[in-house]
Give the backbone structure.
Amino acid sequence: MNIILLGAPGAGKGTQASRISDAYALPHISTGDIFRENIKNETEIGLLAKSYIDKGQLVPDEVTCKIVENRIVKPDCEKGYMLDGFPRTIAQAEALDKVAKIDLVINMDVDFALIMDRLCGRRVCKDCGESYHVTTLNGATTCSRCGGELYQRKDDNPETVESRLAVYSQQTAPLIEYYKAKGLLFNVLSNGTPEETFEMIAKKLDSFSK
Ligand code: ADP
Ligand code: ZN
């Protein structure tokens, strides 16, 4: 099963992705994670990506598409995979259609009013990528999943979040119609807790794999 997680920044894609990946044994492919890994290792792609990410803009389609095309042909993707944060433009979706057959697109719908607080209060595990929120951490500075150190992403500040939201509305939101027209869209409301959202997604995935 090949699935796409769609949604605005702060919709909870990454959080659900790690739960889905654990429960359904699907490799979790996050273009954002791949870019951050490249930035950390100071690769050529990382250097290029950083200039866009720090401004809340999208990394150019050619670069992003190539990364995904190379990733989904790896042996661990043979039985399926989950894309998180890709595609983010119509051009990326069209490129993906040429190399993959997508079975389901999960669109995570969240109130825009919740996003700023979610993202600016987010802390991420340096080692496994799990997301937390300062209000539930109670001062903890390490990951309860793997013990890794938590940090705040550089693009999780009010100014950059504003531009990420504008980019989402202009370039990514049209994908909802794109996949609806193909009959692949599953909408899930993501205003509640991660557990509530996961329950709805799991119900859908369970009915799907039978
Ligand atoms: P979020 O969904 O919280 O914004 P991501 O980790 O998915 O976070 O992405 C972080 C940044 O990485 C984006 O703001 C963008 O600059 C870049 N990026 C990630 N995925 C893509 C993509 N498919 N196309 C272009 N840029 C991307
Ligand atoms: Zn961790």
Notes: The chain has a mean pLDDT of 95. The chain is about 50% helix and 15% strand. Residues 9, 13, 31-32, 35, 52-53, 56-59, 64, 85-88, 92, 164 surround adenosine-5'-diphosphate (ligand 1) (CB under 6 Å). The CA atoms of residues 44 and 181 lie 37 Å apart.
